[in-house]
Structures are given as C-alpha cells and as structure tokens.
Amino acid sequence: MPTTTRFAPSPTGYLHLGHAFAALTAAQAGTQFLLRIEDIDGTRCRPEYAAAIFEDLSWLGLTWEEPVLRQSERLSAYAAALNVLKSRGLLYPCFCTRAEIAEEIARSGDAPNGPDGPRYPGTCRHLSDAERSEKIAAGMPYALRLDAAKAAAAVGPLTFAEHGAGPAGETGRIAVDPGLFGDVVLARKETPSAYHLAVVVDDAFQGVDLVTRGNDLFAAAHIQRVLQALLGLPEPAYAHHRLILDAIGKKFSKRDRAVTLKSLREAGVTPEDIRRRL
Ligand code: GLU
Predict the structure, then answer these.
(1) CATH number of the domain at 4-73+145-277, please?
(2) CA within 20 to 30 Å of 24's CA: 62, 140, 150, 205, which one?
(3) pLDDT, tens digit, for every residue of 193-216?
(4) What separation in Å is there between the alpha carbon of 10 and the centre of ligand 1?
(5) Which atom of ligand 1 is nearest to the CA of 203?
(6) CA distance 57 to 275
(7) Centre of ligand 1 from the C-alpha of residue 271, in Å
(8) Cβ within 8 Å of residue 40, ≥6 positions away
(9) How far apart are CA 14 and CA 12, in angstroms?
C-alpha cells in the first residue's frame, strides 16, 4: 500500500476550483500528504502566488508535512540527474530555435503529434561531434534533449501502475510508450531542468510512492516512468483523477479570475461550500 502522496502546484497564478479538487483528492488519498512548490521556471513563477497557495490550502482546511520542498532550491539535484543521463550517452544538444523546428515540421509534412504537439523532427540528433563542439564553442544556446530511441533500448519494456484512471478510463498496469513525447527537452539555458526531470527526481527524493494529480498529466507518466528507470529511481504508483470543468466543459485556467479560491473567499464562499460543489 502506498504511504506518501503529494500536491505539486506551480505558482504561476492563483489556485482555482480545479486545484482545490486536486489538493483535496490528494489529501484524502489516506497517506502522508506533502506539498511541493514547482517553481523552477523563473520567468513564470511569482512569490505572491506561492504565498497564496499556502493561504488557500490552509483556508480549505488542509495540513501538510513540513518543510515544504521548493524546486528552485533543488537545481543541483536536477543537474546531477542530467549528468547521469549524459554519461550514459542518452542526451544530445539541440540548437534549433522554435521557428526552425516549425519550419522543419512544415517542410517534412509528416511530424507525428505527441501530447504537447508535433514531436521534434530530430534535426540536431544527426549532428556530428565536431559540429556540436563547433556550435557550442561559438556560444550558440542549446537545449538538452533525451534521445528517445536510445532511452527505449536502454530501459526495455516498462509499465506503470494506474490506481485511478486516465482520460479514456485507462487503469491497472499500463504499457509505457517511451517515444510518446519524442526527443523531449530535459534542460534549457533559462530553465535548467524540465518539469519531467524535476518531478521524478523530487518524487523519489521525497519518498512519494503515490503520484496523485489530474488526468491531464496521464500521458506524462509514460516519459516519467522512462526517466525513473534510466535514473534507477523507485517506481511510484499513479492515481490520476478527473478534472473539474467549467460550465461549457472546458478545463479551468489560471486566467479564470472568477473561480480562484481567493476571489471565491472574498465573495463570502466558505470551504464547506467548495467541498460541496466539488
Ligand atoms: N506542477 C504541475 C502543475 O502545476 C503538476 C506536477 C505533477 O503533479 O506531476 O501542473
């Protein structure tokens, strides 16, 4: 039986009803409950939103283990994980700009789609060592991508355990598709660790053995399970839950001011009202 689960919001806006449902679902998973602030992306995260997360969750009546882990304080752990992957020859530098990738995709006309849009066409995977060194020496900025084919060969067949359900009702043992996201970016100059890498490093570090989150991240479990296997990290179980949708069936976004917990609280809504509504 799993013992530890978490709620891991990014402080890029005020929490809304969808987050309240996610946090309450995780807290009720019957295990030790952790809160993690996923604030690596310095261009989008703001301290006032992090402060509001604590305020909103306390108001909802939730308590969590201290200390709260902040990903912005964990960059050396992500760098160490990147080094493991690099030393296994699984990463390559990608010098493409977004515009170049879009152009290449338009030109080739057959870029398969992954969960985040068209997959990277692999342009920089074919560069020689000399070409890479030359570009790096010239100071060209680059991202580090996982070579999905090499990663798949390195881990062999994998599955993950789904205790909840994916968007199409997927549950039980799910076969991993290591190429689902293509050659995913694991680090960039301005964001030293991508979400997928940080999340597996921290879930393992914190002893999270049940990943509770919305089913919009169900596909992410495929690549995250691959990274766990490559890094020799323990395998958590997953409990993906349904999403709370607005009146027209759309996912709430952080721009929907009317359903932030802050504005609902200020309008006199009580935590009991919220729990009832969810
Ligand atoms: N930080 C992510 C988000 O705000 C959630 C990460 C996770 O639960 O794996 O969407």
Answers:
(1) 3.40.50.620
(2) 205
(3) 999 999 999 999 999 999 999 999
(4) 7
(5) 9
(6) 12
(7) 23
(8) 71, 72, 75, 78, 191, 192, 193, 195, 198
(9) 7
